[in-house]
């Protein structure tokens, strides 16, 4: 099933993005982009969540900009206004909770990839109405989640050969979550590179790991977004 470009509004703030609806009301899930922008791959993740019964919304954090150039993607990521993004995500959480397609589901899930993975952690620490957080190899040097405030369980998906989110970085994240007594489950896939879930990038895509990771995501959301 295919969604559409639209906007969600709450707290007097309208946030553009891509909305994909399930056939029957289901919990809301926010899908956060990689540093490329709101590209077709991220829209396809929202569609897959809708097929699984979730009301999925991918906010356009770059306000219409996207790229296939790593240099340009890096510039867009570093230019992102984190405070403004936090306000947008807060509005999206509220808008999804109030959406007709999420009736009876007070908690929202969040999933992010690369830059979006770190933002997912950040948003989960800032919004108690987020009930489940999935971080796919999250990284952003200017985003520092306040893990003391985290109430949602975390599913962390990582790549063994990731040059950006190294095993040392994963260990440091695990140590922070342990420090505050948080609930999490991490999985590192052997032989995989950063962005192994992105099926539009054949140079890094790993179908077996991506399939297993998606199965974990669906089981995680089912357990924590009743």
Task: Describe it.
The two termini are 22 Å apart. The chain has helices at residues 40-51, 70-79, 82-98, 115-126, 167-179, 207-224, and strands at 4-10, 13-20, 28-32, 55-59, 108-113, 130-136, 154-159, 184-189. It has 226 residues and is of the alpha/beta class. It is built from 6 helices and 8 strands; from the N terminus they run βββαβααβαββαβα. Keywords: Hydrolase. It comes from Chloracidobacterium thermophilum (strain B).
Layout of secondary structure:
Blueprint: E1 4-10, E2 13-20, E3 28-32, H1 40-51, E4 55-59, H2 70-79, H3 82-98, E5 108-113, H4 115-126, E6 130-136, E7 154-159, H5 167-179, E8 184-189, H6 207-224
Parallel strand pairs: 3-4, 3-5, 5-6, 6-7, 7-8
Antiparallel strand pairs: 1-2, 2-4
Pfam families: DLH
InterPro entries: AB_hydrolase_fold, Dienelactn_hydro, Dienelactone_hydrolase-like
Domain Dienelactone hydrolase: 16-224
Mean pLDDT: 97
Instruction: Give the ordered list of helices and strands.
Output: EEEHEHHEHEEHEH
Taken together, the total number of domains comes to 1
What's the alpha carbon Rg, rounded to whole Å?
16 Å
As laid out across the biggest beta sheet, the strand order is 1-2-4-3-5-6-7-8
- For the secondary structure, the number of strands is 8
- CATH names the topology as Rossmann fold
Low-confidence stretches: none
Query: How does CATH name the architecture?
Result: 3-Layer(aba) Sandwich
Query: How far is it from the N-terminal to the C-terminal residue, by CA?
Result: 22 Å
What characteristic shape results from the CA principal axes?
globular
Helix/sheet category: alpha/beta
Helix content: 25-40%
CATH level-four homologous superfamily name: Alpha/Beta hydrolase fold, catalytic domain
Strand content: 15-25%
The main sheet comes to: 8 strands, mixed
Query: Could you name the CATH class?
Result: Alpha Beta
Organism: Chloracidobacterium thermophilum (strain B)
EC number: 3.1.1.45
Protein name: Dienelactone hydrolase-like enzyme
Domain Dienelactone hydrolase: 16-224
